[in-house]
Amino acid sequence: MKKRYASIWFPYLTTDWQSKRKPDLRDLPFVFASPVHGRMLIKAANPAAEKHAIVQGMLVADAKAFFPSLTVLDERIGLQEKLLKAIGLWCIRFTPIVALDEPDGLILDISGCAHLWSGEEKYLQHIVSRFAQYGYEARIAIADSIGAAWAVTRYGKRNSIIPTGQQLEALLSLPPMALRLEVPVVERMYRLGLKQIKSFVGMPRSVLRRRFGDHSVLRLAQALGYEEEFILPLKPIAPYEDRLPCLEPINTDKGIEIALEKLLESLCNRLANEGKGIREASLTCHRIDGKIEQISIGTSRSTAYIPHLFKLFALKISQIEPALGIELFVLEANKVEDAEANQEILWNTRTGLEDSGLTELLDRLKNRDMACEIFRYLPAQHYWPERSMRQVASIAEKSSFDWPLDRPRPTRLLAQPERINVTAPIPDYPPMVFQYKGLRHLVRKADGPERIEREWWLDPGEHRDYYAVEDDKGQRYWLYRSGHYGDKESDQWFIHGFFA
Questions:
Q1: Under a CB-based contact definition with an 8 Å cutoff, are residues 460 and 390 in contact?
Q2: Are 392 and 377 contacting, i.e. CB atoms less than 8 angstroms apart?
Q3: Bond before 103 cis per omega within 30 degrees
Q4: 388/114 Cα distance (integer angstroms)
Q5: How far apart are CA 442 and CA 353, in angstroms?
Q6: How far apart are CA 363 and CA 297, in angstroms?
Q7: What domains, with CATH codes, occur in the chain?
Q8: Residues 178 and 155 sit within 8 Å (Cβ to Cβ)
Q9: What range(s) does the UmuC domain occupy (predicted)?
Q10: What is the pTM for the complete model shown?
Q11: Crossing angle, helix 253-273 and helix 306-314, to 10 degrees?
Q12: What is the largest CA-CA distance in the chain?
């Protein structure tokens, strides 16, 4: 695919922003200024001020001398950078690859995008009209190279499209500064009479390098497309993402469902061909008013099964507020894992965690209510009971060893053991009576003790002597004494769990 780039220039970025906030200033000459070496210097001027020959870099005192009614505003530090980044993120609706071209421009890699707007001409007109709708003057050029697009945007015909392979013809009549050269180099060219690119484009590269430096040769080669130029996107390109622009804004749930089905079909078919499935995914909706709506889902097991994923998203479509309409849908698989290939079967013999119906039920429960927490635990190699399990992220994860079955363990284990009062007849003897939460329990049967030493390499402390006891009502508990009998600092009884 042939690379195509668009350069967008905002000649009045900050002043347009100010005019949006205060419409009464739009037709009045005003500037932003800041102190430099004790003098107020103009940092930005609006179009009305430029009509009076007031431009950036001029001293406020000089401007006031021939235009006393000029409105001077204090420059807002960092405003231009924030505006440019916000606009760049907004432009992701036109292409996934958007880079900053500081201080007042953007570079868009539009390769393979313009056909979604029926060609580059309509694509360019759409972008320009959208910026005009929001009150920003934007000048755009499209070319095979970043350098050519940048040059034509600022020094060529406004809103131009340079046909493929014709960047040289577009550059010939432009001044040397269109190549993004340093000011001293440009001044030297002017002194030599080289006032247009056609004056030196045919010179040997060795001559240009000797007179104007390596950088001038590189910039010329980049503009002509002989040297590739790389950009750093504002948002990293997701490896698994699909986009669906809309010819007409979508503002109904049914329209969102149709768009979602198309995106899921495209993305899941690609994932299935690569043997992968979705664990986390998000649907981002770009509204025509510039705002973004987003919903996300998660699955217990990686899957590329379209009906199941659609049901999970369908639970949250009501959360999307389309307002005047959505113009772009972006489906992104945020987390992808290897998945088993779906196989058609006559009957399902899988049960338990292998049953896909179970995982789909868990996914629906969790995505219906994000406050619903579903955890799965596997055995962990620890002697200490509260450390003998670990939480896992996937329902498909396998354990390297099984739960120990040689000793009784309670069905329910308390997260933190709770202190109890115990009566025992003689040292190292099972308890006869214990009191827990204000209730007195008479022990009829007891089994133990089972001594479990503390894992000294993790934390210091006493060992535990565990007893499985049954009270006069048939209820069974797991109790333990901490430390040796008779040691008043450690001789304490606790309840740690309940048997079924």
A1: no
A2: yes
A3: yes
A4: 58
A5: 41
A6: 9
A7: 1-237 (3.30.70.270), 241-338 (3.30.1490.100), 412-498 (no CATH)
A8: yes
A9: 16-153
A10: 0.67
A11: 150
A12: 111
Instruction: Report mean pLDDT in 10-residue bins for the chain, 500 residues.
Output: 90 93 89 90 92 90 89 90 93 91 93 88 93 92 94 92 92 93 92 92 90 92 91 85 88 91 92 89 90 88 88 90 90 86 52 63 69 76 81 72 77 89 80 90 90 85 90 92 70 87
CB atoms inside a 10 Å sphere around CB 92: 20
Q: How far apart are CA 222 and CA 211, in angstroms?
A: 19
Burial of 19 (0-12, 13-18, 19+ CB in 10 A): buried
Return the structure tokens found at 309.
Answer: 């994923």
> What amino acid is encoded at 193 in this protein?
G
Sheet with 30-36, side-by-side order of all strands: 39-45, 30-36, 71-74
Residue 208 corresponds to which tokens in the numbers above? Answer: 């240009």
Structure tokens given for 63? 């401007």
The total of other beta-carbon atoms located within 10 Å of residue 75's CB is 19
Burial-class residue 202 by CB neighbours within 10 Å (0-12, 13-18, 19+).
exposed
Encode the chain in three state secondary structure: CCCCEEEEECCCHHHHHHHHHCHHHCCCCEEEEEEECCEEEEEEECHHHHCCCCCCCCEHHHHHHHCCCCEEEECCCCHHHHHHHHHHHHHHHCCCEEEEECCCEEEEECCCCHHHHCCHHHHHHHHHHHHHHCCCCCEEEEECCHHHHHHHHHHCCCCEECCCCCHHHHHCCCCHHHHCCCHHHHHHHHHCCCCCHHHCCCCCHHHHHHHHCHHHHHHHHHHHCCCCCCCCCCCCCCCCEEEEEEEEEECCHHHHHHHHHHHHHHHHHHHHHCCEEEEEEEEEEEECCCCEEEEEEEEEEEECCHHHHHHHHHCCHHHCCCCCCEEEEEEEEEEEEECCCCCCCCCCCCCHHHCHHHHHHHHHHHHHCCCCCCCEEEECCCCCHHHCEEEECCCCCCCCCCCCCCCCCCCEEEEEEEEEEEECCCCCCCCCEEEECCEEEEEEEEEEEEEECCCCCCCCCCCEEEEEEEECCCCEEEEEEECCCCCCCCCEEEEEEECC
CB 286 within 8 A of CB 245: no
Return the sign of the alpha-carbon dihedral for residues 437, 440, 444, 449: positive
Alpha carbons 442 and 432: distance in angstroms, whole number: 6
Look at residue 457 in the predicted model and tell me its pLDDT: 83
Exposed / middle / buried, residue 188 (Cβ in 10 Å: 0-12, 13-18, 19+): middle
CB atoms closer than 10 angstroms to residue 155: 17
